[in-house]
Amino acid sequence: MSADLILVAKSQGVGVIKLNRPKALNALSAALIQQLLGSVKSFEEDDEVGAIVITGRRAHEKVFAAGADIKELEKLTFVNAYMGNFLQSLADGIAAARKPILAAVNGYALGGGCELAMMCDVIYGELQIAASNSPEKADCTTAGTNAVFGQPEIKIGTIPGAGGTQRLIRAVGKAKAMHMVLTGESMKADEAEQAGLVAKIVPPEKTLEIAIAAGAAMASMSRPVLLMAKESVNRAEDLALSEGLRFERRLYHASFSTNDSKEGMRAFIQKRKPTLKPLPAVEEHNTNRNYQKYTLFLNSLVSPIVLSYMCKHILNAQAAIRAPCCQKWFDCPECHAETSDHPIRKTTDMVFMCKKCRKAFRKDMAAFEESDEYSKRKYYTQKIIEAKTPTPVVGVEGEDARKDARMLRDERMKQLALSLDDEFADLLEP
């Protein structure tokens, strides 16, 4: 790449990015950030890469990244920083990556360098183990700490500007984060691991090797499920517990639409190692569409009867669907062809299929509507609607009336839940 501010390589299905400004202690200049984001985007689009590792090239000083380029910061004014979204592009670019990003911190990670590490999904910190003849003491981290984390911006008259005050408090708690930000003091690798900032401490000179091995293990997993898992964990920071659980459950349901989940479960039952084939570009694209379609379906307004049935049908027949608010057509996974190439007709409020798949669906749906399960689902659905309908309380008005109505509704729902068969419990899910 131009100016060689970033060195890139691929190893074991892992994209490796090295910050290459050793004389400037790998300071994050605007040019380096631009090349870094370009490399991340390139690996994101590379189907051979399943995970990304970011590390720093070292010279005489062991440095991951010493922070933003002070020479560039010194020239900034408020207007330039505000209008130029200074450092925002770095945070947005790393956060937009769907593949796991690992930080192999092999030295000082200060200021913007610490913030860059915290933008990554997993941090590995280098730590020198003290030599000892005692097996018990050989595992003790008593000296030679190499990886150091800190937010010393206050010492130069500013504050962290790329997530240092926000991500650090989520990682180590308010007390430690406040102390580090207000004093500018650093945290060593062993302390960072105990606080929860670092996932694992590793021996010197093996930081990159171990990070690549971890990335290779991630890259060997089912690609769609790997992306789902990362997305679900990241959402935990932004959502309330109830919303996070609902989001996780939807992705969990969606994971059953992948061939890898079936292969993994079969392998577990048969006590063998699963064969998870790397997905070619086209097949991976279709799989991601299937996941997106399934998520859109679960998020859409639809009859509980149709929803509960179609959830099962999609897992088996993979019917092509779209949400009412989505104008994009998806492939029909049965024949892997664009639905726009087939005669398309609306089968239900939500389902669009090619001619062949639509015919099979109609046959299955007709059989389902004649089954006892359909009758029971229709009956229970009506009961749920009646239970959720507020009942006016005679003689009570205003907020007290609404409160009493909600209490009666909740009591009816509890009684209905107790009488509901386990196989129809999904109708009660929000």
Automatic annotation (TrEMBL):
Name of one Pfam family that matches: ECH_1
Keywords from the UniProt entry: Isomerase, Lyase, Metal-binding, Zinc, Zinc-finger
Molecular function terms, GO-annotated: hydro-lyase activity; isomerase activity; zinc ion binding
The keyword Zinc is annotated on this UniProt entry: yes
Record-level GO cellular component terms: mitochondrion
A GO BP entry: fatty acid beta-oxidation
All copies of domain CHY-type, residue ranges: 304-376
Family per record: Belongs to the enoyl-CoA hydratase/isomerase family.
Protein name from the UniProt record: Enoyl-CoA hydratase/isomerase
